[in-house]
Amino acid sequence: MTVYTTSGSVIIPRNTRTLRGILKGEGGAGSTLTTVDCTFYTQSPSSSGSCTQNFIGDGAATTFLGASAGGGEGGFKGNSNAGGTGGIASNGSTITGVTQSLDGNDGGPNSSGSNTGGIGPGGDGSNGTSDTYDVQGPLNSYCCGSGSPGYCISSCCPASTTCGYPGGVSAGCCRCQKRVNTQCFSCGGGAGALIDFQMDYTELNARSLLGTSQTFTINGGASAVNNGSLEVIVEFTRVWINTSNGWKLCENVFVNTADDGWVGVGNSVTAIT
Fold first, then answer.
1. Which of 106, 237, 244, 250 is the most buried (most CB within 10 A)?
2. CA-CA distance, 105 to 93, in Å (whole number)?
3. Which residue, 250, 244, 249, 251, is CA-closest to 273?
4. 178 vs 159: CA distance, rounded Å
5. Is the preceding peptide bond at 121 cis, omega within 30 degrees of 0?
6. Pseudo-torsion of CA 42, 44, 49, 55, nearest 10°?
7. Nearest C-alpha neighbor of 67 from the set 100, 41, 91, 101
């Protein structure tokens, strides 16, 4: 089924019987990681090793006729390790025919096997990631012959496997901190919300929407996940359709407005070609 995935506008024909809108918010981005290994420098490490999460961005809300399917929050928003919160569904225009109004599901926390993006009901949040880095580990003895502090620093404690030399010399051996490889994880992004509503001719007419062009917004959030969408389905009581066998009068015709060939149906032109 064809859906809108970028912001734009749609014409609501004058003789629309019902209009259905299905809005899905954009998912939030999972956070990324920046890792720094511990580095050896004289008697102590110049860097003890670190893993830092980076917030990328929230998903955008999908909006149409006053209804809003909120975008999911990005992972690590507000420095929270709990994962991005799902988007919020809002019927700000008090549309009477809302059939579904569902908030998005939260993204997972920064732990192994749990840091996935939130799944539905709108656009899914993107997953977190994982990485490894070296940190200071326990003191190990390195017996290299000399056992002097200068020799420990310059030659005995290998920078490739140690992070510092805080332990001095014991029994002629250098006491250096071993490098320990550690894994870290980032948070998943929250999923977008969903709103599904239907407006009949009476409500469309009362709101002066018939025969007008109405704008909608989709995607474009800082998350850049771009999986929000809008589907608009218009029902006509009777429409002339140009078929291979000539013009036919059809009743109860449903048109997806994102499909090619619908423009003008029920307005000034009464045909789908």
1. 106
2. 24
3. 244
4. 9
5. yes
6. -100
7. 91
Q: Are 26 and 88 in contact (CB under 8 A)?
A: no
- Where exactly are the structural domains of the chain? 8-129+186-256, 130-185
Q: Which region, left, alpha or beta, applies to residue 167 given φ > 0 means left and ψ of -120 to 50 means alpha?
A: alpha
Q: What are the tens digits of pLDDT across the range 256-272?
A: 777 665 544 544 333 33
Q: Would the pLDDT of 154 be above 60?
A: yes
DSSP H helix total and E strand total for the chain: 2, 16
134, 110, 183: which is closest to 36 by C-alpha?
134
Q: Is the pLDDT higher at 153 or at 3?
A: 3
Token pair of 17, please? 């019987």
Lookup: tokens for 73: 């929050």
Chain segment 44-59, per-residue pLDDT in tens: 555 688 999 999 999 9
pLDDT attached to residue 243: 76
